[in-house]
Write a structure and sequence with these properties.
Blueprint: H1 4-11, E1 12-15, E2 18-21, H2 26-29, H3 34-55, H4 61-71, H5 74-84, H6 90-101, H7 112-130, H8 134-148
Antiparallel strand pairs: 1-2
Helix pairs in contact: 3-4, 3-7, 5-7, 6-7
Length: 155
Amino acid sequence: MPCVPCAIINLMKTSKYGASLRPVDDARIRELSPIALAYIGDTVFDLYVRAYLVKNNMGRIDALHRYASGVVNAHAQAQAALLLRPNLTEREAEIFQLGKNAKSTPPKNASHEEYSLATALEAVTGYLYLTGQTARLDELFGIVITHFLKEDSHA
């Protein structure tokens, strides 16, 4: 198994604006562990939530933090995973299962099942991001936003 930092650095290319990511082919994705995909996916998921909150002017920083914390945690991500699971393609479902079965230790505030589902969601998010499937990521994230944040947009 190649080292994770080395694998991520190999995904980088230099542009005149600094390092940027180029889409990774599926053969390369198969070399990455589900935990590495979840590592990227965690950040991407958080960025999507925060960007949505800021773009939709959902309040001051303290309110933004409360909203984001309500969606970016193992319990909410497990709910999101169950919500999205029926909408996944065959390949996404495969990544989901790999992420769900990955060996990891949940934090004290999450059950093993919640953490496994959250890791599965993050792995799919990381997969879609790294393979450049941003339209698909937007589609799935739209379902999550509608479920978790749309009804709170008046607050």
